[in-house]
Amino acid sequence: MRLSTYTVDAFAERPFAGNPAVVVPLESWLPDEVMQAMAAEHNLSETAFFVPDGAGQWHLRWFTPRFEVNLCGHATLATAFVLATELGATGPLRFRTASGILGVEREDNRFVLDFPAMVPVLATRPPPGLAAALGAVPREVWKARDWICLFDSAETVRALTPDHGRIATMPDSVPGGQARVMATAVSDDLRYDVVSRYFSARMGVNEDPVTGSAHTQLVPFWSARLKRQSLVCHQASARGGTLWCRLEGDRVRMGGHAVLYARGEVFLPVPRLIDAPIPA
């Protein structure tokens, strides 16, 4: 069986920036173990798979090299980009996902994602060894889905050299959860309001280049702190990426660019895989 694939640099205005994702269009679902094996083979932060789900809507799932995840921003942007620029989809796009219905609209040359906001609270009991794992002591630690470490300067955030092995063994506040850690500060670059970095070794990705789901937490955090609804956010990884964000009630709108890096074809040896049922 032959499947088309697209590799897209999301939250990027040029190749070799932003966060790369592989997008795989399907007519019906493959078995989970096959999609997981494909994601491990691609070895990027996420591989996105989607099937048609009605007019203007698709059922979308995301896999890291180790797990299926319930929310991913950059691979959603990459999927919308492929549908709009490669597969001829028009108008607003809707995706049925494990996190509900997610919308994407095209505004000029950006794609704008509409995601649920996750509001952080001050952490009363941060995980032991957090500062040692990051290599610096945060001023404050907050928690939404992930640990949010506030630092006094963007320079400190950029200079972090975390111990990913320690982060991989760090406990989460949710039993059985995978501890994921972000570091953030007010930007010292006038082009941006805030900067961040994101570490998730337990998920199979030591440092994620640009993380849309992180900004569903960072935008409510910084919006309350800076007293503004609109923020330009920069993720200061080696590849780097910029998100134009706005908090609208209990939703976060995140705009970003995308660039097609490659079109490809995958060869799977078992044709009957395509007959696997679509999960409810």
Automatic annotation (TrEMBL):
Alphabetic keyword roster: Isomerase
Family: Belongs to the PhzF family.
Name under which the protein is recorded: PhzF family phenazine biosynthesis protein
Organism (species): Pseudoroseomonas ludipueritiae
Source organism phylogeny: Bacteria, Pseudomonadati, Pseudomonadota, Alphaproteobacteria, Acetobacterales
